[in-house]
Design goal:
Helices cover 27% and strands 24% of the residues. It is of the alpha+beta class and 734 residues long. It has a domain of 152 residues. A hairpin with a 6-residue loop joins β3 and β4. α12 packs antiparallel against α13. The radius of gyration is 25 Å and the shape is globular. It starts with 26 loop residues before the first helix and ends in a 9-residue tail after the last strand.
Length: 734
C-alpha cells in the first residue's frame, strides 16, 4: 500500500558469482568467490550509488560501506572452516526434524481473493487453480488496520501490532504532533569537525529499526536453517542473521522520503505538485537546455535545507524525436516516450565528499516545450551508501549478476501517475520492469536455497491495483481526470495472469518434499469517496482551529491543541489528545475511556449523505484488538471504512477540509486501508490446511513448527494442521 508521498508507492548479462548456500559450498565455489571479491569491492564500474534520508551525512557512508564490506569478507574467509563445521552440525540437527526440505513463500502484496476466484473460474489462472484443487485456497485474515507495513510485520513476527509496534506507514511525535516513518529512524553522525564555515560529519549514519519482535527467519537461522529473504516490507535496516536478505518497502530515497520524483520542464505556467514530486525549471543556454536533479542536504552547510544538486544538460532534436543528455561523465541518447537505463548521479559537497545515486530518465515531450521526468534517486545496490541487504555484499552480488535495480521501498511511482506526469503506459513499463528484476532475483535465490526457506514479496500487484482499479468501476470519479483507455481495461486481469505464470515456474522447481505458500497481506476494494474525520471532529466540537485559520495547513498546522480533544492521524487512526501523553493534551486520562466510547458510538455507521451508503462499517478500541508492550503508541480508535470509502487525501496529510466527504479523482482509485473484514488476503498452498480461518499471524509459528521449533510464547498466531503433501503440486508448467 502506498500513501501520499510525505506519508507515503532487461535482461543484463553478468558474471555469476557464488552466494551463501544452505549446504556446504564446494571448494571450487569458494575459490570463485575469493576471485570475485576484489572485483566486487575495488574495480571501478559504472556504479550508481544511493543513500538514504536527506541529511547530508550520506556522502560519507559509501566509504564506511566499502570499509565494512572488506573486513566482513576478510572475517568470512578467515573463519570459514570453523563456521562450515558448525553449520554442518547444526544443519543435521535442524533438518532432521523438518516436515519439509524446503519452504517457498511467494508474497503478492494486495492480491485479492475475489478477483482470484473470478479469474480462476474463467480459466485464466491454471497454476493457482491447480494449487486450489490439489492443496488449499482460502481467505487469509489480515490485520487491524489492513495496511502493508502492519500486515507484513505481523507476517514475519507472528505477533499483533501491540508487540511489533507498527500501526501505519507513519507514527506521530507526541511532542510536536508531526509524523515520522514508523519503521526506521535515521540520523546523521553524532560528531562533526568544524573548519571555518564548514561542518564536516565524522563517522557513519545512525540507523535504528523501529519494528519490534523477532522475524521467524531469525529463529530458524539460530537453529541452523538457511533462509533467503527478498523484499519483505519493514526489513530496513537489515538485521543480522545466518542467511541473506534484501530489504523491501520502507527503504528511503536519497532525499529521505519514500520517493520524490522531479519533473524538469521549460514550462513556466505550472503549479506545485500536491505530493510526491518537485518541478525543476529548464533554461535554454547556448543551444542546450540546462537543469538539475535535487539531492540530499549539503553535509558541510549549517544552513537548513541547503541541498546538493547534480547539474545536467539536454540537447533536443525534435525532428528525430530524441534528446541527448549529459550528466557528469554519463552520455545517453533518449527517444521520445522512452526510459533510460539506470544512470549514475553524483552530488559533490566539497572536500572530496560525494553522494552517489541512480535514477532513470523518461523523455515526455520535446516540442513546443521540453518535459523530462526523473525517477526518485535510489540507493545503488552495487555500492550502497546505506545498508539495504544482509550481508552487506548481497545487494552487490545481485547487482553484479543482474545489473542495477530499484532499491526504493516504494519503487513504482504512483504519485507521478496521480499528477499526470506519467501516463498509464509509462507507469506500467516502470512497474513491470521492477517486477521482472524481482523475478530474476527470486529464481536465483531458489537455486541457491536447495534446503531451508525462501521468501520473496512482489509489490506490483499492490501498485497496479491501486492505480488501475478505476478500470473495474464504470462510474469511478477518477475517470474525470484520467479517462479510460480501451487497451488498459484488462490490466488487472493480465497482472493476475503474470502472477500465475510466476507461480507455475516456481512449481516446476519443487519436489514432493517442498512446501509452497502463495499469500497476500490484504485484498482490495474500490476507493471512490474520501472521508475527512478531522472535518467531522471540527463540526462536532472535538477539534478546534486557531483563530482565523481555514484548516488547509498540512500536519495540523491550523489546529488549536488547547481546545482539541481528538484528531485523525494517518490512514485508519483516531487519537485522543491526552494530558501527559501528547505535549498539549487536554483530555484527562480518566476520561479517555468514556470519550472513546462516545466517539465510537457516533462514528460507527456514519453514512454518506450523497448516496446514503455507510462509509464507516466498524470502529475498534485499541485495547480490544491489540495486546502487548507497545499498545500505548497505537491509535486510540481504529477506523474501518466501508466499500468505496477511505480516509481522504487531505485527512491523511493532517488537513481539515471544508466537507467531510469528497470524490476521489486521482488515478489512485483502489485501496485496502478499510474495514479489515472486507479485504482479507489470499492463501494458496500445495498442501491441504485443515484450519477454517487462517490468519497472516499464523505463518511464522507454522513455519517454525514445520522445522521442529517450538512457538515462542509472545507469538499470537496458531500453527496450521497439515495433511500429506499433494504429489500433483510438484509439477506445474506452462
Amino acid at each position: 500500500m502506498r500513501v501520499a508521498r510525505t506519508n507515503s508507492h532487461l535482461g543484463r548479462a553478468a558474471v555469476r558469482p557464488a552466494v551463501v548456500r544452505a549446504s556446504r559450498p564446494r571448494p571450487r565455489r569458494l575459490t570463485l568467490l575469493l576471485w570475485l571479491l576484489p572485483l566486487i569491492l575495488f574495480i571501478p564500474h559504472p556504479a550508481q550509488a544511493y543513500v538514504g534520508p536527506g541529511a547530508g551525512f550520506a556522502v560519507l557512508s559509501s566509504f564506511w560501506t566499502l570499509f565494512i564490506a572488506f573486513f566482513y569478507s576478510l572475517y568470512a574467509f578467515v573463519t570459514w572452516p570453523l563456521r562450515q563445521l558448525f553449520r554442518f552440525l547444526r544443519h543435521r540437527k535442524a533438518y532432521g526434524k523438518a516436515g519439509a526440505k524446503r519452504v517457498v513463500i511467494l508474497g503478492f502484496d494486495g492480491m485479492d481473493p475475489k478477483l482470484a476466484e473470478r479469474y480462476m473460474a474463467e480459466g485464466k489462472l491454471p497454476h493457482l487453480s491447480r494449487l486450489r484443487d490439489s492443496g488449499t485456497f482460502q481467505r487469509l485474515q489480515t490485520t487491524f488496520p489492513p495496511i502493508s507495513p502492519v500486515a507484513w510485520s505481523t507476517f514475519q513476527t507472528g505477533s499483533n501490532p501491540g508487540k511489533h509496534n507498527i500501526y501505519d506507514f507513519l507514527a506521530r511525535d507526541m511532542g510536536t504532533y508531526l509524523p515520522f516513518l514508523s519503521s526506521a529512524q535515521i540520523s546523521g553522525p553524532k560528531r562533526h569537525l568544524r573548519l571555518g564555515k564548514y561542518s564536516i560529519p565524522l563517522g557513519k549514519p545512525q540507523i535504528k529499526q523501529l519494528r519490534r519482535s523477532k522475524p521467524f527467519w531469525h529463529w530458524l537461522s539460530e537453529a541452523g536453517v538457511f533462509c533467503s529473504i527478498l523484499r519483505v516490507p519493514v526489513t530496513f535496516p537489515p538485521e543480522k542473521f545466518s542467511g541473506v536478505l534484501l530489504s523491501g518497502m520502507c527503504v528511503p530515497d536519497l532525499k529521505g522520503s519514500q520517493g520524490t520524483f522531479c519533473f524538469c520542464t521549460t514550462r513556466s505556467d505550472v503549479n506545485k505538485f500536491e505530493e510526491g514530486g518537485v518541478r525543476i525549471p529548464m533554461e535554454r543556454r547556448n543551444g542546450a537546455f540546462r537543469s538539475h536533479i535535487p539531492g540530499p542536504d549539503d553535509p558541510l552547510s549549517e544552513q537548513p535545507g541547503k541541498e546538493l544538486r547534480a547539474e545536467f544538460k539536454l540537447r533536443a532534436f525534435p525532428e528525430r524525436g530524441e534528446a541527448r543528455i549529459e550528466l557528469d561523465t554519463e552520455r545517453l541518447t533518449l527517444k521520445l516516450g522512452q526510459y533510460s537505463e539506470w544512470v549514475s548521479v553524483q552530488f559533490k559537497a566539497g572536500f572530496g565528499l560525494t553522494a552517489h545515486g541512480i535514477c532513470r530518465f523518461y523523455l515526455k515531450q520535446l516540442a513546443p516545450e521540453v518535459e523530462l521526468y526523473v525517477t526518485p534517486v535510489n540507493i545503488d545496490p552495487g555500492r550502497p551508501d546505506l545498508p539495504i541487504s544482509h550481508p552487506l555484499t548481497y545487494s552487490m552480488y545481485l547487482a553484479r549478476l543482474f545489473g542495477p535495480y530499484a532499491t526504493l521501498g516504494l519503487a513504482e511511482d504512483t504519485w507521478a501517475l496521480n499528477e499526470q506526469v506519467l501516463d498509464d503506459d509509462a507507469f506500467l513499463v516502470q512497474a513491470y520492469g521492477n517486477h521482472e528484476d524481482r523475478e530474476r532475483m527470486l529464481f536465483d535465490a531458489l537455486e541457491k536455497t536447495p534446503r531451508g526457506v525462501c521468501v520473496s514479496v512482489f509489490d506490483t500487484t499492490d501498485r497496479v491495483q491501486h492505480m488501475f482499479w478505476r478500470y473495474l468501476e464504470d462510474s469511478h470519479p477518477a475517470q474525470r481526470q484520467h479517462p479510460r483507455q480501451e487497451r488498459h481495461t484488462k490490466v488487472i486481469e493480465e497482472l493476475y495472469q503474470r502472477v500465475d505464470h510466476v507461480v507455475g515456474q516456481v512449481m516446476q522447481q519443487l519436489d514432493d518434499d517442498s512446501l509452497l505458500l502463495v499469500i497476500s497481506d490484504h485484498g482490495f476494494q474500490n476507493f471512490a469517496r474520501g472521508v475527512n474525520l478531522n472535518t467531522w471532529l471540527l463540526q462536532n466540537g472535538y477539534l478546534a482551529l486557531k483563530p482565523g485559520a481555514k484548516g488547509n495547513g498540512e500536519w495540523f498546522h491550523d489546529v488549536d491543541w488547547s481546545r482539541t480533544r481528538a484528531y485523525n492521524f494517518g490512514l485508519n487512526g483516531l487519537f485522543l489528545n491526552v494530558r501527559g501523553r501528547e505535549r498539549n493534551g487536554i483530555v484527562e486520562p480518566g476520561e479517555a475511556a468514556t470519550l472513546k466510547k462516545e466517539l465510537r458510538q457516533k462514528l460507527d455507521g456514519l453514512a454518506d449523505p450523497l448516496s446514503g451508503k455507510v462509509a464507516i462499517t466498524g470502529i475498534w478500541e485499541n485495547d480490544s484488538v491489540y495486546a502487548g508492550p507497545y499498545v500505548g503508541t497505537s491509535p486510540d480508535l481504529i477506523v474501518g471504512y466501508g466499500d468505496g470509502y477511505r480516509a481522504s487525501w487531505d485527512a491523511v496529510t493532517g488537513k481539515v477540509s471544508e466537507g467531510i466527504f469528497e470524490d476521489n479523482t486521482k488515478a489512485w482509485s483502489g485501496d485496502h486501508c478499510v474495514d479489515p473484514r472486507l479485504v482479507p488476503g489470499v492463501l494458496f498452498s500445495n498442501r491441504k490446511i485443515a484450519d477454517a480461518q487462517p490468519a497472516i499471524a499464523d505463518v511464522a509459528p507454522t513455519i517454525l513448527r514445520l522445522f521442529g521449533l517450538p512457538t515462542p510464547t509472545h507469538m499470537d498466531g496458531k500453527c496450521w494442521t497439515w495433511s500429506a503433501p499433494a504429489a500433483a503440486s510438484a509439477t506445474g508448467a506452462d
